[in-house]
Specification:
By secondary structure, this protein is mainly β. Helices cover 8% and strands 28% of the residues. A six-stranded mixed beta sheet has the order 5-12-11-7-8-10, with no helix packed on it.
Length: 389
Amino acid sequence: MTILNRLLMVLMAVSLLVFLGIGCGSGPDAGDSDVDGDSDTDGDSDMDGDSDMDGDSDTDGDSDTDGDGDSDGDAPKTCDSFEMDEDTIVLKLTDDQNYSFWNEIDIESTSVNARSEIIFDWSDLKEDMLGRPMKPDEDVQAILVSVWKHSEEEVKELINDDTWTMKNIYPPGRLVTDGSQTSAEYFKLDTTSGSPVPLEDLEDFIDPAKYDPEKTAYTVMVQSSVNPAKDIRMLAMFSVDKDETNDTVKIHNDSTTLDYEATLDEFESIAIPMGTSNIKVDWTNGPVMNAMGFYFVPENIHRVMVAYYEDETLEDLENNFLRLEDMAERIWQVDHELGFYENLSNLVDKDGNSFRGIGSEGLYVLTLICTGCANPAPLFLTVLEPCEE
């Protein structure tokens, strides 16, 4: 299956009870019970007023049949003695809790004339790498053009494996669009700090006599953020040739494609008490490897997310991995800035409502995301399931 590069999350949570007597919810707002003293038995714990439309979050009466590390029909997990930091539960992540992801990326390359103006045109870009619809003007805030110290095939491998660093490229050029245009000119690129790039430098970068085409590659990233290499929506490549007459790089829905396989039935889920969000997720010393099988870099976590699925199974999510965000009933997230941990109480939904813990129905997934990685697959993803005292 050929598709596009970026996504995240899956999950699974089984039905159970409460933590230290704090309310017994069933939907995405299960934790409301610790605020108003109401265990939400009247169904007001979710967005539509019914936390469990038919009283059963799955199709067979067993919410633990989809490979979250437990056998079908097992009794609910018992809350183990958690590591505590004063009154905060501490979850230290491990490799056994992470999903696995394999992918092979392909990025279209366009040949353009060397040492002349290049037009980057994304007017036909109606879907991003995840297949999500987008408006080519309003949803694009900047483009980032990078000159790599590697061949095109080597660059694809670095991006595919998310093993590239700034050492692999020359200082990139950026053009801020602010959602007001669908094309840009190479000679108008600025530095990422906003200063103009001297014309001579821009000409030299696309001069085959100065940068060997066999050892140099060029990428353009279309972004929904003005920050370099953040919220990348699409990737394209181009090469320079003194005998080429074309001067336009067209960026479209299929500029980047991806073959992938996500495995969501082999990790160990994490059991936590229902109705509490004062939980610190700590990735300081683990996992050692990310979902792609490469070393986990703690500094690469830029966003922490919990997603709730009302009716979907893990198999559903695995089969529609590029639509995880679209399939979610509700998402809470926070942009992570400092340190190698995040408290789940800091996560909010699109309306600014705080995450208040998991309930007994549906699936909850915890995801650690690198927004600065060209590969959009989450570096860490696991299921949060409720435990009982």
